[in-house]
Design a protein that fits this description.
mainly beta; AOC barrel-like; 8-stranded antiparallel β-barrel; elongated
């Protein structure tokens, strides 16, 4: 059975030293700290790697974050994997639960998450399932 969780979250990104190149490209790294609310009451910590081209609005990022809390009342942890691109301002983002990363009452968790940012306010929609045969 597929379920949906949603709610707001706050995120703190802390830039780490970046590498800049003569052609205008930049490779960066950031630490991630989040607080999720709503159906997912949790915190997460993670790392993000970024790559920006010299073309304004074109970039990519990958990130891994470990989420610790409760999902619809089930306690545990899981890992989210992000893969995002921006093609001259047009975003594409895929966020997926790393297989077999769920622990405790979240063992067998799978799913995908979308993120919305409206006027600086972040929210998530998490479509997920918890396998009974885990």
């Amino acid at each position: 059975m597929t379920l949906t969780a949603s709610g707001p979250f706050q995120v703190k990104l802390v830039p780490q030293p970046a590498d800049a190149y003569a052609d205008g490209a930049t490779l960066g790294r950031m630490s991630i700290d989040k607080e999720f609310h709503g159906d997912l009451e949790a915190t997460s910590k993670g790392q993000m790697l970024t790559g920006m081209s010299s073309m304004k609005g074109s970039a990519g990022y990958v990130a891994i974050e470990r989420v610790d809390g409760t999902l619809a009342g089930r306690r545990g942890t899981f890992i989210l994997q992000h893969s995002g691109t921006m093609n001259r301002g047009a975003p594409q983002l895929i966020i997926t639960v790393v297989p077999d990363s769920g622990t405790d009452e979240l063992t067998g968790l799978s799913g995908t998450m979308t993120i919305d940012n409206v006027n600086g306010q972040h929210s998530y929609t998490f479509t997920y399932a918890i396998s009974a045969d885990s």
